[in-house]
Amino acid sequence: MNPTLWRNKEYSRSLALTALLCLLAFLILWGTLLQSTAALQKQIHQAHITAIGSILIEHPELEEAVIRSATAVPNTRGQEYAAGLAAAEKYGFSNPAFAASNGLFSQLRQTMLYTAAGVLLILCMACAYTAHRAFSQIYSGIRRVSEGAERMMRGSFDFRLPEQSEGELAVLGHHFNRLSERLQQSLQKLDREKELLRNIINDISHQIRTPLSSLMMFMELLGGQPLHEDDQRKLLSKSNAQLERIHWLLHSLLRLSRLEADVVTLSVKPADLGETLHRAVGRSEARLTRKQLEVSVSVPESPVILPHDSDWLGEAIGNVIDNAADFSPDHGRISIALSASEVTASITISDCGTGIPEEELPHIFQRFYQGSQGRAGGRIGSGIGLALTKLIVEKHEGLISASSKSGQGSMFTITLPRTRLTKW
To answer: What's CA 378's distance to the chain center, in Å?
Structure first.
């Protein structure tokens, strides 16, 4: 027998009920047999008493001998038995069929037959009810699964099968509900990806419109009337700057979108955060040198090891450094410090720039947000760098915050856990 059947509650419950009914039928038969046997013994005893009485009426002097014979243990080899057998044969009473035709035995046989038939009928009806109930539950469960599958095919995923009961149908219901949830999540994810793709296309078209317009204007000027060599170099330089801006916009938007859509899997492994910080400063060296900024970097003497993706986190740190360089005056100063505790590690990047108005601080990490200081200073930003930084830091289960006062510079703080809370 398949051992998994015993784990099936519907099967074991039906089998237990059938066994209980069989036991009940046996007890009824046994009780009826005992009752009929007791009645037969009583009637046989009454017949013996009647026979003794009949003999004593005719021969009262034989009372002691008759009573002794009636209470003696039967001995088929004794003289009494032989004499009794001879008398029984004389009148045809020695044949067992004669005893079977006796009213006592006939009544017993009839009672047993009726009782057995009644018990068998009840047992059959009970088994039929048990089978009907078991198969009704099974087919009802199959109908619910079929109904749920049909509703899923129509795009409705709110149907759930019961899981509170026990047995294989409950297990099937549990797996069906999990499948429905997975399909629903997959479709929702597809919808989000479609919406994300739509937003990416809108963002790219919106962001590159301005540099493309500038680039087309420069090309028209270069293709028009002859220009002085210095003017041509200026236009070519501006055109190259716009091309670089378009390239950076597309690159940043695509990276931001890939992170938002969970298309990219970060390569997280324990590494020295100080080395990642130094590499990020090195990547921004050209921008820092162009404005002749003084940069001080402070890191602990011992390595600060924590799990992170050095490339992505380095890009996030570099975006903050580039932002600090853009809003710092020439010959200014930028301070970068790494500190660590047993639980977290923090990177602070401070500049001496124009600062950020207090009312704009809650919005600086929003995509495409450009503060008033940048617009007033004539800086052409995209509003993507800090949004990408925030997303990268959050992917590392960290936090980024900013504090500033207008005209007094800004300070950005990146805080990262030294032990990951979730498994990659």
So the answer is: 53
3-state helix, strand, coil in the chain (%, to 5): 65, 10, 25
- The CATH number linked to 221 is 1.10.287.130
- Give yes or no for residue 292 having a pLDDT over 70: yes
Q: What distance lies between CA 369 and its chain's CA centroid?
A: 38
For residues 317-336, give the mean pLDDT. 90
Q: Which residues are CB-neighbours of 421 under 8 A, at least 6 positions away?
A: 397
Give the separation between CA 295 and CA 302, rounded to whole angstroms: 21
For residue 115, give every residue at least 6 positions away whose Cβ sits within 8 Å of its Cβ, in sequence order, or none.
28, 29, 32
- pLDDT on residue 379: 46
CA distance 20 to 205: 77
Which of 49-53, 212-216, 270-274 has the highest average model confidence (pLDDT)? 270-274
Position 423 in a domain: no
What is the domain count for the chain? 3
Same-domain pairing of 287 and 227:
no
Q: Where a domain ends, among 153, 174, 206?
A: 153
**Shared domain check, 282 and 258:** no
Query: Is residue 167 predicted with pLDDT exceeding 70?
Result: no
224 and 116 in a common domain: no
pLDDT digits over 179-207, tens only?
Answer: 888 887 888 777 876 776 676 666 666 66
Q: Residue 383: which region, alpha, beta or left (left: phi > 0; alpha: psi -120 to 50)?
A: left
Q: What is the domain extent for residue 88?
A: 3-153
143 and 38 in a single domain? The answer is: yes
Residue 32 has pLDDT above 90, yes or no: no
